[in-house]
Amino acid sequence: MTKNEKGAAIEQLKAAFEANEFFYVADASTLPADKTTELRRALHAKGIKMQVVKNTLARKALEQLPSENNYAEIFESLKGATAILFTETANAPAKVIKEFRGKEGERPILKAAYISSSIYVGDDKLELLSKLKSREELVSDVLTLLQSPMQNLLSGLKSGGAQVAGLLKTLEEREA
């Protein structure tokens, strides 16, 4: 790889890291080619882009980004074979990896995950990451909570309206 090619690769990785607030660092190195293709298809179906990278290029790209993002903790995970999983949904890669490993074995291994400036290091964090709620799930939960009091109020008004109508009918019958 020439110096110009490395510079272009670093810029491309830097742009990908800037564009995604969630990414995972994984190792799928010992998977046979057909299983790697199957993994890529499963990831693609969920809108996740898998990119095999050279560790030094990934590190240089991360080093060029603002230091307040705290990428330094990820540097230790950039050893051995590395694939970066870029996603727009925080828990999607963890769910795909967990499901894939359920069928296929112990790979891919989660090395680290970057979720909105929080860093999770180690394969033992896979279960925790798979249980994170996505932005859509959180919005749904908030809407449900907001609708609940309104539904209770409307329900109360409906039942109260029937009681008022019954009382008025009874009073009308007494007067007659």
UniProtKB/TrEMBL annotation:
Keywords of the record, alphabetical order, are: Ribonucleoprotein, Ribosomal protein, RNA-binding, rRNA-binding
| SUPFAM superfamilies linked | Ribosomal protein L10-like (SSF160369)
An example of a Gene Ontology cellular component annotation for this protein is: ribosome
- Keyword Ribosomal protein: yes or no? yes
Q: Which Pfam families match?
A: Ribosomal_L10
Describe, as the record does, how this protein assembles with itself and its partners: Part of the ribosomal stalk of the 50S ribosomal subunit. The N-terminus interacts with L11 and the large rRNA to form the base of the stalk. The C-terminus forms an elongated spine to which L12 dimers bind in a sequential fashion forming a multimeric L10(L12)X complex.
HAMAP family on file = Ribosomal_uL10
Task of the protein: Forms part of the ribosomal stalk, playing a central role in the interaction of the ribosome with GTP-bound translation factors.
The record's similarity note reads: Belongs to the universal ribosomal protein uL10 family.
The protein's matches in NCBIfam families, at most eight in alphabetical order, are given as: PRK00099.1-1
Q: Please state what the protein is called.
A: Large ribosomal subunit protein uL10
